[in-house]
Amino acid sequence: MNERFAAGREFLLRQGRLLEQRLFATCFEGAPGNGVVDVLRGYANDDGGFGHGLEPDKRCPASLPIDVEVALQTMAAAQTVDPPLVRGACEYLAKVAADMGCGAAVPLAFPVIEAYPRAAHWTEWTYQPGLNPTAGIVGLLYRLRVNHPWIPAAAGYCWEQLDKADLPTDAHALNEVLVFLEHTPERERASSVAAKVRESLLDASWFRLDPDDTSYGLSPLSVAPFADSLWRGLFADDVIQAHLDRMERDQQADGGWPIAWEPPSQASLLEWRGIVTLQSMRTLVSFGRLDPEH
Predict the structure, then answer these.
(1) Domain ranges (residues) in the chain
(2) Cα dist. 263→12, 53, 123, 267, 281 in Å?
(3) C-alpha angle 77/78/82, rounded to 5°?
(4) Which terminus of the chain, N or C, has less C-beta within 10 A?
(5) Exposure string (b/e) for 83-109, b if CB count within 10 Å is 16 or more?
(6) Other C-beta atoms within 10 Å of 46: how many?
(7) Do 8 and 255 contact (CB within 8 A), yes or no?
(8) Angle, alpha carbons 143-149-155 (nearest 5°)
(9) Confidence grade of residue 146 (pLDDT, cut at 50, 70, 90)
(10) What InterPro entries would the database entry show (predicted)?
(11) Overall CATH class of domain 3-286
(12) pTM of the model
């Protein structure tokens, strides 16, 4: 096994959550995806949503749309879907949207997080329904081939927002839009919007085109994390390669990758490092920068 790959694997086994350990085994060791789903069930609530710090920057047990999104991202990475879990999640999202009264849009979180430890950036702005996370969630549900009445309603909200003259100015929201555009069945419409999104992305807050910028933000590899990513063509190849160089350099002596923000606890820090380590390994393997075999 490649020494750097082995070091990343060892970091996950030593410091990572069970979820990332099971997902690693599915992505690289041929383990079935049902092991990942078994772990996700531990984060599910009776209302159909997910919570319990599945996204580790807030330690809130209540269901939150951001945690639903992470659950869907995890199932997509494991190339599996559990119909009862996903159906319950869609019912939860539909109820949230109805309660918010903003069409089919959902927010990232709710004020309930304020009763629990959380990162400093998890504040009031996360309580507003919007394309972040609605667009990303709908895109993931399309990717997982899920059918539910909330999905076309939420897609309608997304198109309504994208048809407006001004797109979001935050890279996180634009990245959510790109997930939606990648998986929507309306391919011609998606292609026409994608160019506009790229133009907005380059000037968006929290986007880091410079690979030497060490501050927090999304990079081209956040948008196109795999060699076959649909949006790889939004960036010149030398830009992609420079960010891959940076990602390789960022592996730490303990085998894991660092994070560029302050989580609410040491446990959160290790959980996030496990998440980022696994994602970095998947990206580097996809682009041929890391070989699991040699």
Answers:
(1) 3-286
(2) 18, 12, 14, 9, 22
(3) 115
(4) C
(5) eebbebbbbbbbbbbeebeebbbbbbb
(6) 8
(7) yes
(8) 55
(9) very high
(10) Terpenoid_cyclase/PrenylTrfase (IPR008930)
(11) mainly alpha
(12) 0.97
Using the Cα atoms of residue 181, residue 184, residue 187 and residue 193 in order, give the sign of their dihedral: negative
Cis peptide before 220 (omega within 30 of 0): no
Torsion of CA 136, 52, 121, 259, to 10 degrees: -80
pLDDT band with cut points at 50, 70 and 90 for residue 159: very high
pLDDT confidence of residue 74: 98
* DSSP secondary structure letters along the chain: --HHHHHHHHHHHHHS-HHHHHHHHHHHS---THHHHHHHHTTB-TTS-B-TTSSTTB---S--HHHHHHHHHHHHHHT---HHHHHHHHHHHHHHHHHHTSTT---S--GGGGGS-B-TT-SGGGGS-SHHHHHHHHHHHHHTT---THHHHHHHHHHHHHTSS---SBHHHHHHHHHHHHH-S-HHHHHHHHHHHHHHHHTSBTB---TT--SS-B-HHHH--STT-GGGGGS-HHHHHHHHHHHHHT--TTS----SS--SSHHHHHHHHHHHHHHHHHHHHHTTSS-S--
Q: 155, 151, 210, 208: which is closest to 177 by C-alpha?
A: 155
